[in-house]
Each structure stands twice: as structure tokens, then as C-alpha cells.
Write a structure and sequence with these properties.
The structure holds two protein chains of two kinds. By secondary structure, chain A is an alpha/beta fold. Chain A folds into two domains: 180 residues, Rossmann fold; 129 residues, Rossmann fold (3-Layer(aba) Sandwich), CATH 3.40.50. In chain A, 36% of the residues lie in helices and 19% in strands. Chain A has 13 helices and 14 strands. In chain A, the strands form three sheets. Chain A has a seven-stranded mixed β-sheet with strand order 3-2-4-5-7-6-12, with helices on both faces. Chain A has a five-stranded mixed β-sheet with strand order 9-11-10-13-14, with helices on both faces. A two-stranded antiparallel ribbon of chain A has the order 1-8. By secondary structure, chain B is an alpha/beta fold. Chain B has a single domain, classed as 3-Layer(aba) Sandwich (Rossmann fold), CATH 3.40.50.970. Chain B has a six-stranded parallel β-sheet with strand order 2-1-3-4-8-7, with helices on both faces. In chain B, helix 1 crosses helix 12, helix 2 runs parallel beside helix 3 and helix 4 crosses helix 12. Chain B is globular. Chain B starts with 5 loop residues before the first helix and ends in a 26-residue tail after the last helix. The chains are: A alpha/beta, B alpha/beta. Chains A and B meet through helix 3, helix 5 and helix 6 of A and strand 2, helix 5 and helix 6 of B.
Chain lengths: 346, 331
């Protein structure tokens, strides 16, 4: 059946609420407003205000309350409108959710699920367009997932709620309207394990989240140039599926990492380092990165477009790698790899 | 405030004395390099933990700060496992992973040991939300200092608790200093109960050096919370006799001020009143001291005899262990 990403998330929440009475949804505007991305529209009527709980604008307070409720035996889904606002809750996520199990010597676990929108592309400028899931992937104790398909959006919430530890789900803003095919019997999806979304032999395009669809489009275009690209969707940024990353590199011997996040200290750096550590002798060429340009997101469409990885950039990077024309030859300003991306000074 | 019966008065005295002697021993052990890191002593403030926690039932929950040895002992976290935690031994209540600042104990529903000022308040709100949604008659007592009142998380938590009428007892231990910054240097309004009252919850100021007053106020608040009256806030006016931590040269307060507060030592106050009421004599006090000393020494012996967690287990407890899991915590 056809469904949108938004509906898939909503159905996942609805199903979880029916299945387990410990589950509840809490966040800003999740109830009466219906969710700022309309994900929870209609759920207030169905489940009532106790379980579809509107909160004040107090990210640290309600995220911490979600962590506390999880400690107390509930299975909260905390919705933070966007990753940009989650910084107000960093103390609770990093100092509490990620550490309580460890600090308590295993006495207390924190089965909280925190969902948030991420990414750019809607012309909402610098404070609403960040892609900082890679930051969270730095933190031991958290699980970071980035569902890119309707199946994953539907199935990962289920698994996240069953997980005894905190799981952060990053939903790319450009995906909510995306339609996809969802099997009637679509079930849970594991939180770990990358997926090969397209098999290929010449170059591996490694990505996750909202960038997946640009990468798949780039792979189509590369095929028209006679280049067979394999597309690996990481799905989880913590843990990273090292095995899948190294396996795809072992098949193609070339890798392009595509990440909307910034290159400096980003998750793309981690992936690249792991390839170097684990598959150095498999490589026919240095790993290339196509990342967000290192600039706070500008508002005008043409600048925003230029700041985000685009299909042409990915194609150019891959062609450069495979055809040896030099990275970014066809794509204008370089975004990744040796030359550094613009805005990357000094 | 009238004294409770002799047995209960003795229990309160014992609870305070145990905290005092335990922590005095900890200070010694710190100089002997048995205890490391930060060590924040509660000495002087014992009446707050002893008096308030005495009111709680086993089903209730406690959230505390990095200065939480007093709350843990008063709550009944075994003295042995608290001391082993101070040492960092795996027999500690948190397997030694937390140390002095992070005492946790599932048995007594003791949720830390939170070392980020005000970071525990939202947790307490969540614990209370869970008990309400589960239909459990639990009160969550949340301890924090005057310093926390300046934090955003304090205000967010107060608003949520009041808005959702949750069963939280906010126990503010106002010892007049946020580390070395005096209340009047940090707070626009130093009447902290008034700050809480602004959220529409009952908020009372209590003499935190008088364990009987602490207990009475807490009982009133807890009874009200159990009857569905929503969160309550108690500002306990108290004083820390020791430095903030073991590294504090105490440049911010005078010896005279400390000496003045020591005249109202909560242990001496109760001891004097019990003697006056004929509940305690020299022999009784000696017996109590001996009993407490034995418990503290036994805990030291327990900690000394404890073992270090093997380094191979370093990455345990980063993630929960699952069936068939090798116990790895790598992400």
C-alpha cells in the first residue's frame, strides 16, 4: 500500500500506543496542534491528553521528564520539534539518558525514545536547518537511527520502543511528504545494520537519511555514464555497521561518503577513518566526501541549494573517483576531500 | 515543635549521627587516598535528609545531587555498599562506576547521585509522571541546593510538576552558597520559597537545622501530596560546616559565620532536647556513638575487602546487556 513517511511514523506511534499501554507521546504541539510536521495529527482524539501530552516550550524539562518516566517504567516517545531545539535538552540527553545505566552500574536503564526532525531544504535558514545527528553519534550510551524509507520509519520505532536503552530517531524534514510502498505486514526493523539499496561494482556511495534519495538518483545518472554504483544506507549512525561499510568497499574499492552534515569532525570523518582502518588495502583511491558546505544555512533558495549536497555533486565526485578526472570536475566548487570545502577556513 | 517519642527521636539522632561519622571517616579516607575525585560532605545539613526521608515509604522514590551520602544513608542504602562505592569497588551500590557523586540503588528507589546542578529535577518530574500514569501511590522526593534555583531546568521542572499536578516533593537545601557564591550574589530574590510559590504550589520555609521541624513539615507536605494536592516545595534553611569539596579554601565566608552556625549543629540540638526530655543520658549517647562507629568501621572493612572490577569489563553498562550478548558496549 502507498503511504507517506509522515503516515508511516504516525501509524508506528498509533500501533505502539495500542500494543503497549506504557507508551505515550510527549512534546511541543504534539496534541492540539497535531505535531509541527503533522505526524501526530488525530492521535489526541484517539488516545486523549494523558498519552498524547502537549508540553510547554521546555526542551530540557520535558526531555528529562521523558527520561524520568522511562526510569519509572514507562515507554515514552519524546518528540523534539527539530534537532536545532534539542540543544536545549543536551544536558538531559547527554548527561542523563546516555550515562545513567553506566553510572548506576547497570541498576537503572533508560528506555526512552526521542524523535526529532533534522536537515535542511525548506528555506528556514540557519537555526532550523541543521543536520547534527552526527554529534549525537559521538555519545556512548545512545543509539542513533536515521530511517530513510517508509518501511524503516514504520519499523524502527517499534524496535526502538522495545530497546532497553535510549534511542534517538532522526527524521529528515524533506522525507515527511515522500510516498513509498509499505507492505501490509510490514513489521519491526532492527536498529542496527546498514542496507544495500542498490548493488554495484565500481564505487560505493555511503549515506543515510534524507541524502539517500539524492544518492540513488546520482546512482541512476552514474549508470548512464557506465558507472555501476553501490548505494549503502547506513540507517544507524550509532552503532555504525562496520561490517557492511568494509564489505561494500571490498566489493567496489572506491567510496564516496555523502552527508548533509558538515565535513569537519562529522560522521563522514568517522566513516572515512573506519574505511582507512579496516579496508585501506582494498582502496584503489582515497575516499571522497560530499558534505554540507561549512556555513550556517542561508535563507535564499539558490544559496541553500548550493550549501547542501546535490545529485550533481555526488555524480561528479563519483565520476572523478572512477574516471580519474579529479574530484568535483563537473560540479563546480569542490565540496569534499583533499581540497577542502568552501567555508572550511582557515 | 514537640519531640516525637523516645524511640523515634533516637532513630532520628542515629540517622544524623551515622551520616556525620560516615562522612568524617570519608574525609580521613580521602586524605589517606582511599577515596578520590570529588568529595562533597553533607556535614551540618544532616537534619534535612534524616528528617525528610524518615517520612517516605519504601515505595517512594528519591532523586538527589552530588552531595548525597546523607540522603542515601537516610534512605537505607546499605552503609557497606555506599562506602564501597566511595572506594570505587565493584561491591559498591553502583559497582564503583559512579563514586561519591553517583550513588544509585534500585532496592531503595534511589535515583542518584546527579552531579549536574538541577539536572535531577526533570527526572523527578518524569518519575512522578510515571507513577501517576501507572496509578501508583508514590511520592518522588527531589533534593537540590539553592544553586539549582538559578538554573533553567529548575523552572522548567517546577512548571511541569505544577501544571500536571504531579506527586513531587521538591526539597531545596538552602545552605546559602552555590559552591562559593553567596545566595544574594546569585539570586535576584533570595526568598526561594517565594520563587516556588510563583508556580502555584505550596512552598514553605523550614528550619533545616531542626530535624523535628524538618520531619513535621515533610509529613504535612507528603500527606498533602498523597491526598492529590500536587507538588510541594520545602526550602530547608541549612548550612554546610565543611568546605564545598576537599579542594575549597573557603575564601568566601568567615570563620565567625561558620562558628555561629555550628552553635545550631542539628545533632547537638536534638541531643540536647532529648537529654532535657529525659530521653537520653551519657550512657545512651555513648551506646549510640558506639553502634554508629561499628557500622561505619564495618563499612570500611567491607570496602577494603572489596574487589576491583576487571578492566575487561570496562565497556559494560554502556548499553543494557541482552541475551546472547558478549557484554560489549562499543557503539
Amino acid at each position: 500500500m502507498k503511504t507517506t513517511y509522515r503516515e508511516a511514523v504516525r501509524e508506528a506511534i498509533r500501533e505502539a500506543m495500542h500494543r503497549d499501554e506504557r507508551v505515550f507521546l510527549m512534546g511541543e504541539d504534539v496534541g492540539h496542534y497535531g505535531g509541527c510536521y503533522a505526524v501526530s495529527k488525530g492521535l489526541l482524539d484517539e488516545f486523549g491528553p494523558e498519552r498524547i501530552r502537549d508540553t510547554p516550550l521546555a526542551e530540557s524539562g520535558f526531555t528529562g521528564a521523558g527520561i524520568g518516566a522511562a526510569l519509572g517504567g514507562m515507554r515514552p516517545i519524546v518528540e523534539i520539534m527539530t534537532v536545532n531545539f534539542s540543544f536545549l535538552a543536551l544536558d538531559q540527553i547527554v548527561n542523563n539518558a546516555a550515562t545513567l545505566l553506566h553510572m548506576s552500574g547497570g541498576a537503572f536503564n533508560v528506555p526512552v525514545v526521542i524523535r526529532m526532525a533534522t536537515g535542511g531544504g525548506r528555506q528556514v535558514a540557519a537555526q532550523h536547518s541543521r543536520s547534527l545527528e552526527g554529534w549525537y553519534a559521538h555519545i556512548p550510551g545512545l543509539r542513533i537511527v536515521t530511517p530513510a524509507t517508509v518501511e524503516d520509519a514504520r519499523g524502527m520505532l517499534w524496535t526502538a520502543l522495545e530497546d532497553p536503552d535510549p534511542v534517538l530517531i532522526f527524521e529528515h524534514v524533506m522525507l515527511y511528504n515522500m510516498e513509498g510502498e509499505l507492505a501490509e505486514d510490514a513489521g519491526p526493523v532492527p536498529l542496527e545494520g546498514a542496507a544495500v539499496r542498490r548493488a554495484g561494482t565500481d564505487v560505493s556511495l555511503i549515506t543515510y537519511g534524507g541524502s539517500l534519495w539524492k544518492v540513488l538518483e546520482a546512482a541512476d545518472e552514474l549508470a548512464s555514464h557506465g558507472i555501476s554504483a553501490e548505494v549503502l544506507d547506513l540507517r544507524s549512525l550509532r552503532p555504525l555497521d562496520d561490517e557492511a561499510i568494509l564489505a561494500t568497499v571490498a566489493r567496489t574499492h572506491r567510496a564516496v561518503v555523502v552527508d548533509e552534515g558538515w565535513r569537519t569532525g562529522g560522521i563522514s570523518a568517522e566513516i572515512t577513518a573506519r574505511i582507512m582502518e579496516g579496508a585501506f588495502y582494498e582502496l584503489d583511491a582515497p575516499v571522497v566526501r560530499v558534505c554540507g558546505v561549512e556555513v550556517p544555512m542561508p535563507y535564499p533558495a539558490h544559496l541553500e541549494r548550493a550549501a547542501l549536497p546535490q545529485v550533481a555533486d555526488i555524480v561528479a565526485a563519483a565520476r572523478g573517483l572512477v574516471e580519474g578526472q579529479g574530484e568535483g570536475a563537473d560540479a563546480g566548487p569542490a565540496r569534499g576531500s583533499a581540497g577542502g570545502s568552501r567555508g572550511d577556513a582557515p | 515543635m514537640t519531640l516525637p517519642d523516645a524511640a523515634h527521636a533516637r532513630a532520628l539522632l542515629r540517622s544524623m549521627l551515622l551520616i556525620r561519622r560516615f562522612e568524617e571517616r570519608c574525609a580521613e579516607l580521602y586524605t589517606q587516598r582511599k577515596i578520590h575525585g570529588f568529595l562533597h560532605l553533607y556535614i551540618g545539613e544532616e537534619a534535612v535528609a534524616a528528617g525528610s526521608i524518615a517520612v517516605l515509604e519504601p515505595r517512594d522514590s528519591v532523586v538527589a545531587t552530588y552531595r548525597e551520602h546523607g540522603q542515601a544513608l537516610a534512605r537505607g542504602v546499605p552503609t557497606d555498599t555506599v562506602m564501597a562505592e566511595m572506594y570505587g569497588k565493584q561491591e559498591g551500590c553502583a559497582r564503583g562506576r559512579g563514586g561519591s557523586m553517583h550513588v544509585f540503588d534500585a532496592e531503595t528507589r534511589f535515583y542518584g547521585g546527579n552531579a549536574i546542578v538541577a539536572g535531577g529535577l526533570p527526572l523527578a518530574v518524569g518519575l512522578a509522571l510515571a507513577s501517576r500514569m501507572q496509578g501508583e501511590d508514590r511520592v518522588t522526593a527531589c533534593f537540590f541546593g539553592d544553586g539549582a534555583v538559578a538554573e533553567g531546568e529548575f523552572h522548567e521542572a517546577m512548571n511541569l510538576a505544577a501544571l500536571w499536578e504531579l506527586p513531587v516533593l521538591f526539597c531545596c537545601e538552602n545552605n546559602l552558597y552555590a559552591m562559593g557564591t553567596a545566595l544574594q550574589i546569585a539570586q535576584a530574590r533570595t526568598d526561594l520559597a517565594a520563587r516556588a510559590a510563583a508556580y502555584g504550589m505550596p512552598a514553605w520555609t523550614v528550619d533545616g537545622m531542626d530535624v523535628v521541624a524538618v520531619e513535621a513539615a515533610t509529613r504535612r507536605a507528603v500527606d498533602a501530596i498523597r491526598s492529590g494536592a500536587g507538588p510541594h516545595f520545602l526550602e530547608f534553611r541549612t548550612y554546610r560546616f565543611r568546605p564545598h569539596s576537599m579542594f575549597d579554601p573557603e575564601l568566601y565566608r568567615s570563620r565567625e559565620e561558620v562558628a555561629e552556625w555550628k552553635k545550631r549543629d542539628p545533632i547537638l540540638l536534638l541531643e540536647r532536647r532529648m537529654r532535657e526530655a529525659g530521653m537520653l543520658d551519657d550512657a545512651g549517647m555513648e551506646a549510640l556513638e558506639r553502634e554508629v562507629a561499628e557500622e561505619v568501621e564495618a563499612s570500611v572493612a567491607f570496602a577494603e575487602a572489596g574487589s576491583w572490577e576487571p578492566v575487561e569489563e570496562l565497556t559494560r553498562f554502556v548499553y543494557s546487556e541482552r541475551p546472547g550478548d558478549p557484554g560489549e558496549g562499543e557503539g
